[in-house]
Amino acid sequence: MNAVARFIDSDFLYSFRRSPVAIISALVALVCVFGAILSPWIAPHDPFDLASLSLMDSFKPPAFMADGENAYLLGTDDQGRDLLSGIMYGTRISLFVGVLAIGFALAVGITVGLVAGYMGGTVDAVLMRIADVQLTFPAILIALLVDGVVRAVLPREFHEKIEIYVLVFAIGIARWPQFARTVRGSTLVERGREYVMAAQVIGLSRARIMISHILPNVLGPVLVIATLNLGLAILDEATLSFLGVGLPPTQPSLGTLIRIGNDFLFSGEWWVTIFPGIALALMVLSINLLGDWLRDALNPRLR
Q: The ABC transmembrane type-1 domain covers which part of the protein (predicted)?
């Protein structure tokens, strides 16, 4: 109870209550997250149930238009799938890919940053030059390259089974340098502190010093970067799926729905692209605005 009381009276929560942008962004993000998580139970239809789909229901307009039906509030796509249900399931897939990709990038980036910052010397120079080289290329190009290489190496019969994990790996490996450079800079500062020197004097191993002593003190800025990069990772997944190298049409992520609708945008079926695009924009914008607020809230110079 004391911890809860301290949190309620904390500057962090006070800053949140004083920021209308943060409150609205949090509400939008929560709606997206809960809608995605609860989609198997609250979605009007199951877009993965092929037995329930009918091509006769394809390209039905939204319910508010003249020929719309109340059973399909946002209309249907080219396969007769309910667009609202597709958006809910697609948001679930996009969030799943984004969270796993950022988690993977965090694991790689924190490990590399800790080792480079604490070890220094040749190890630091080699690891940071690798990160610098990768940072010269856009993350989406790295993800495209990794995705293509993995697809070429793996047998074709495994592609559909592990496609989502290949996508997670491609996006994660494209975004680790930012985390590595941030952790490395903080580690360079922390390794000269008295508590690190004391740990070295009593004979603790380098691994234990890095994990138990330095890591907890460098996580703050990393978590802020992770929040900002989550929105970018979701956009990466949508971009790859839009280009046709991400998830297949049988797994309707937001990027896949936008790609499908783009083929029919100028023939009058605008809703197949517009509504998933709005959902993607709202979700990414709310996450980015929350990340901006979190960065300012955790910055002691702005308090």
A: 91-291
Tell me whether residue 271 is exposed, middle or buried, using C-beta atoms within 10 angstroms of its C-beta: 0 to 12, 13 to 18, 19 or more: buried
Please name which of 113, 245, 254 lies closest in space to residue 179, comparing C-alpha atoms: 113
The C-alpha torsion from 252 through 56 and 61 to 72, rounded to 10°, is -70
- Residue 237 in contact with residue 66, Cβ under 8 Å? no
146-201 tens-digit pLDDT: 877 877 777 776 666 777 888 888 888 889 998 999 999 888 888 888 888 888 88
Nearest to 282 by CA among 270, 290, 271, 272: 290
Domain positions in the chain are 2-302
Question: Which residues are 82's β-sheet partners?
Answer: 76
Q: Which fold has domain 2-302?
A: MetI-like fold (1.10.3720)
Query: Within 13 Å and on the Cβ side, how many CA atoms surround 161?
Result: 5
**Which residue in 258, 255, 254 sits closest to 273, CA to CA?**
258
